[in-house]
Amino acid sequence: MKTRDRILQASLQLFNEQGERAVTTNHIAAHLGMSPGNLYYHFRNKQQIIAELVARYEAEVEGYLQVPQGRALTLQDKAHYLESINQGLWQYRFLLRDLEHLVSADPEMAERYRQFSRRCVQSGQAIYQGLVDAGFLCAKRANPEALALNSWLLMTSWVSFLCTTVLDGEQSELTPAMLRRGVYQVLSQELGLLTEQARPAIEALLAEYYLPLDGIGLS
Amino acid sequence: MKTRDRILQASLQLFNEQGERAVTTNHIAAHLGMSPGNLYYHFRNKQQIIAELVARYEAEVEGYLQVPQGRALTLQDKAHYLESINQGLWQYRFLLRDLEHLVSADPEMAERYRQFSRRCVQSGQAIYQGLVDAGFLCAKRANPEALALNSWLLMTSWVSFLCTTVLDGEQSELTPAMLRRGVYQVLSQELGLLTEQARPAIEALLAEYYLPLDGIGLS
Predict the structure, then answer these.
(1) Phi then psi dihedrals of residue A197, to 5 deg
(2) Cβ–Cβ of B138/A184 closer than 8 Å?
(3) Whole-model pTM?
């Protein structure tokens, strides 16, 4: 792996585990057994590392919010979307905890995020339209635009909700199970919209992401 | 009005109009034609004013998230919940823009907010259960717990979504219409869950909060 990529990977890990504010470029260099000078050769400062991680987050999310061309959406596609959301939430949890704040620190990043967020809502709309067209969701009741917007709001606010409302002295770290419940929340929007033929498979998928709220200290 | 209340009212107005970071205690005092010393007699610093506004926000939200005792929920109750959400979003928009950040600055405020947010999710669950019991939502499909959690996420993230994704150089201020669309998003969750007898009235209510996304520069 290139040094630049190793720095990004270690930074992401440390930010996720210890919180971005608690981690300095010196910590990152020490974690990699690297001199601070070597790190500075690749990144001028922590803000530049964060900007690069935000760019990777954006590229990954856009990568998975694609609608297959020339064929209908399948259950497998749907399961893949959900698992991608789950992994994205976990992998970039430090960022999602404080996204508005990190992004608003830099006007260029803020403008790029604005465009990214708009494209994601549009992609989400195409996906929900695909789910209607493929017979998963009832065409008469499902509103792809409203669903896409709500899904985007739910996905981007779940980690910070966990941090403000669920974490406390007793449970002070995010767990993968907590993030799975976020995916359940996105999918639960479809409960009233499923066609009869799609319902059994989607309810089985929902069960995979279910976690009772008292399991995350919220009940 | 008491001086203390005048200071809070003016602070809320200025924070909403100009952003919290751009407003100092000197600006607030000048706006009220008051000496800074007189303001400091009531509030030690800006943080204390913010803490008091957060407390008022919490008290108001909890005030409207009540389920009537001894009778079923009515359409009027439902309309009242929605209008309260709408007014709360508008009235405390500066706070909702950056809530996690403002709240996390003070451990005592963070702990109070955690308890408040948990109680709101519980109250939301009681309200959705009330809507099922009163025959608005289909008992077989509606999941009051998931709906309450999603509604809370949508309500608390809408303003910051608008700020990161909708506002830009051309449209740099929140408008009441933008916040109404947030209420539409909350209510739109029910589209697949309405009973046949409730549908016409709720669809009429939805139409009242509808605003096309290109009307807020997002399409």
Answers:
(1) -70, -25
(2) no
(3) 0.95
